Task: structure prediction
Amino acid sequence: MNETPTPTQEWTIVSFGPDFGAITHHHAPRFRAYWDEESDIFRGIDLAWLTRPLPGSAVPVPGVMPGADGAKRLHFFAHEWMDYPLFALFHSDYLDELMQCAAVAVRARSRPLTVQKFSILPMEPGMGLVCHHEFPRGSAWWRVADCGWEIPASPTPRAAVRIKESSNHALELIEAHWEDPRPDPAAFDRLMQQAAATVEAWRAA
Result:
């Protein structure tokens, strides 16, 4: 994981890959979100489904920052607000300006490639994505059984793996998208077992 703090420490940008990662805003209103810059890892995943109004309100959070002058379109999703509620957050102009500043911070980052095999993107309690950065590159949804969150629907069939943990909670992995050709069934099962072990270790940490 490559972390690039801005000089003022207002923002911290984490790169899970060349085109996606996480951003944290350290000044009020403090929040964390994931960002995607037209990466292939989220192809076919409805990021708008993960870009929800502010908790307890119908105020939309700007999710898509259009690209201009050669910049790629930037999508923010799965926001986690630490200073909610703040009155200013209920004004769409304020939220739009805040996310525009977030876009500037992301686009100003350095772009080192990730060196880790897997990265974990938690999006809801007990649910998220696990991304594999080596061949075959791809991503899978992970979910703790009975966590209350449904895996987003897909127009194409997806294989699932159900793994029992030592704590007797079942961990479910469902393939999301492949950047490289999909592995054969045996290799797919081995990769999902490795991804599950990574998720379990992250949850236990």
